[in-house]
């Protein structure tokens, strides 16, 4: 883990905003690159004068997230239906259900997923597969990404040389959100099935 963190930090320090952009883009293409590490490191580098501004750190990271998220969304959008068609009517039915879910709750789902580790790196794919409306996807993906990126960049900037001390706390809070999200999904599915099996439903 320490070697991985050193690698991420090295990329940020060596390539600055461009390195951060690439890291965040890959993180939104389902590559586990440790975006929170890169963001805090970028903010700390701005605080130390190695980068000119934590605001530019947040901007570069946000743009990387948007580009990566849109690419993964496009893969799902243009590849999801043909794949479902190959697997038959059952797959097409599930795809239609997913589309209905994202039509109702997609904006909130996309926004919330920007703050959940691992999920944030893959959440654009189901949004694309379900063919969520592009304008809503991009708007809420960008909004959530901006809050996440600027927030962690400022944390790194504010703590400066002590930024290593806050990384464990950031990672722990992320794991807590992941567990909470998993529990919420299980409860939602259980309640949905319960109401679906009631007589007359």
Q: What oligomeric state best describes the polypeptide chains here?
A: single chain
Report, as a whole number of angstroms, the end-to-end distance.
50 Å
Total number of beta strands: 0
Rounded mean pLDDT is: 76
Characterise the protein shown here.
- It is a single chain.
- With 201 residues, the protein is mostly helical.
- The protein has one domain (2-196).
- 83% of the residues lie in helices and 0% in strands.
- It has eight helices and no strands.
- The chain has helices at 2-27, 35-47, 54-86, 89-113, 119-122, 124-129, 134-159, 163-196.
- The protein is elongated and about 55 Å long.
- Mean pLDDT is 76; it is low at 177-189.
Concise overview:
This protein is an all-alpha fold. Helix content is 83%, strand content 0%. The protein has one domain (2-196).
SSE layout and pairings?
Layout: H1 2-27, H2 35-47, H3 54-86, H4 89-113, H5 119-122, H6 124-129, H7 134-159, H8 163-196
Spell out the key features of this protein.
201 residues; mainly alpha; 8 helices; elongated
């Amino acid at each position: 883990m320490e070697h991985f963190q050193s690698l991420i930090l090295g990329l940020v320090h060596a390539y600055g905003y461009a390195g951060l952009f690439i890291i965040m883009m890959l993180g939104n293409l389902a590559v586990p690159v440790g975006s929170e590490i890169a963001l805090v490191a970028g903010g700390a580098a701005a605080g130390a004068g190695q980068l000119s501004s934590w605001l530019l750190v947040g901007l570069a990271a946000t743009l990387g997230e948007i580009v990566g998220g849109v690419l993964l969304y496009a893969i799902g959008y243009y590849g999801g239906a043909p794949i479902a068609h190959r697997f038959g009517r059952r797959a097409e039915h599930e795809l239609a259900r997913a589309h209905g879910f994202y039509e109702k709750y997609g904006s909130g789902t996309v926004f919330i997923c920007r703050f959940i580790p691992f999920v944030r790196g893959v959440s654009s794919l189901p949004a694309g597969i379900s063919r969520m409306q592009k304008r809503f996807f991009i708007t809420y993906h960008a909004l959530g990404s901006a809050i996440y990126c600027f927030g962690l960049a400022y944390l790194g900037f504010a703590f400066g040389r002590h930024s290593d001390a806050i990384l464990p706390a950031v990672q722990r809070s992320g794991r807590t959100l992941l567990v909470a999200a998993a529990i919420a999904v299980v409860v939602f599915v259980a309640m949905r099935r319960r109401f679906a099996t009631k007589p007359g439903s």
